[in-house]
User: Fold this.
Amino acid sequence: MKVFLALFFLFATIVLNAQETNKIKVVIDAGHGGSDPGNLNMTKGFKVEKDLNLLIANKLGNYITQYLGHKVEVIYTRTTDVFIELKDRVNIGNKANANYFISIHCNSAKNPLVFGTETHVHDINSKISRELGLEIEKQFKTRAGRNSRGLKLRPDRIRNLMVLKDSKMPAVLVETGFMTNKAEEAYLNSDRGQDLIASAVFRGFRDYLKKKHNIEMRKPGDKKPVKKVEGPVWKIQIMASTGPVSLDNPDFKKLNEPIEEAKITNSTSTFNYKYYVGAYEDKRDAKKALKEIKNTKFSDAYIVKFETIKK
Assistant:
């Protein structure tokens, strides 16, 4: 009997440990670093590629940890400004028996008018990598409002990329934009641009995992729903945008309030998305809340009256 109990507890311990460690592993690789700056900045005061790669890679990792951390383990090739050999980046993933490898880069071109995102995979036979890459580019195009230049294979670049060729796991290299295009360089250097890019890569990865592994995104912490009452009500518009903005945006989170996204389809305005906080029956309450919001990054926020909100 004692032997049976000992074996039972040993088996239970092994099972529990397996459940804890049986996570999908993804390597996030911030390209370049240290003595290797990558593409240089075209505009004075802007960052070189290695720094942009690291900022976006860290944001991507944070998204995965926050929303998929119960099922996905993030492994970074670097988290600071250090030089890592290409073979060592690959070895990090291979030794960890990682399931996926995502490398973050910024692009360049001789033609300064070229702009947009690209996701590279090794070749046509890299089926899983291609599927993941297509999900990422889909998010760039439909969610982040970027100019997607599509999936790129080895013939498109006329050379091998070691992090794709030698990785023992499905691997993609994401070119997040062209630093040689002035407008896109500015976008890559903005907090909002970096956030949207990281969010798009995350959503593509998330959607792929949902399809192939049936992994659902962990729900954020409990938040109060926007109160719905009979109108009129007053809401605080904090911003408007030509394209969608991730509701996980750090500036939104600092408000500690649910953010309402409204897509405007019948408007001559260039702003197709509007973002609101609150739904107040008393305008005086809205004014009090507005004063606090104006002390944040949303200093241009203002009150909008809505006649009716149905229960």
About this structure: The two ends are 62 Å apart (CA to CA). Residues 191-213 form the longest helix (23 residues). The chain has a mean pLDDT of 85.
